[in-house]
Amino acid sequence: MDDDQLDLVFHALASQPRREILAAVRGAPGCNVNFISELFDMSRIGVMKHLAVLEAANLIVSEKVGRERQMYFNPVPIQQIHEMWTDEFTRHFSASLTKLKRIIEQGEDK
Amino acid sequence: MDDDQLDLVFHALASQPRREILAAVRGAPGCNVNFISELFDMSRIGVMKHLAVLEAANLIVSEKVGRERQMYFNPVPIQQIHEMWTDEFTRHFSASLTKLKRIIEQGEDK
DNA sequence: TCTATAAGTAACCAAATGGTTACACATTGA
DNA sequence: TCAATGTGTAACCATTTGGTTACTTATAGA
Prior knowledge:
Two copies of one chain form a homodimer.
Chain A (H helix, E strand, L loop, with lengths): L2 H11 L2 H12 L5 H6 L5 H13 L3 E6 L2 E6 L2 H34 L1
Antiparallel strand pairs in A: 1-2
The structure holds a DNA duplex.
């Protein structure tokens, strides 16, 4: 996941309405734009703009079926960030262990 | 972590320069504003604005020591989101298991 | 004490964001 | 075929964002 994609994903998640829209899509796989917009106190176009942000971030994927746009939650970006952070915490923990060993060894040298 | 805080954290992370500034602070605990701003091709005030965003999101904490502002990385918000996502993946996995059990039981009923 | 250094504040400005309404186009189903 | 339904585009606008320069205040050290 490159930096541009990270920008898009974090930005998409940086708005409560958008997180709620994402949750709604996740809870109703294959739902359409109207279904989602009825859940929110916002114009349909407003909702569509949020959906566009989520889709640009690859957090949802959609498919035109006739006159409907069916939308699906895509778990991958969040999972990738989660793994990235998991790796980072692990690495940081290892670095702390290495530091601790060094301190202990210095203690034994004296 | 409430929704306002989530907004702040994700927004703070939604900019490559800001992620790089955060990494720089993390790599140099106790560093000052000038140290950070020398690392970037941006005015000091520009960097300060980014630092303010990171601090509002609680991703860094700082402390005025004389004329210096010493800054530290705060790992907590990212860890909290990481846990939140871990919980969610686990719950989702459990829900999938429950669903799978139900399908199997229906298969046995027939 | 005075100069250098570190940070803070204010103002400015272009671009981006996040909403709105109005209108248009495409598909569905009676 | 035509009305209903679903979506898309365009335009608008207020606010926010992300940078800049100019100036000020506070602290450190010679």
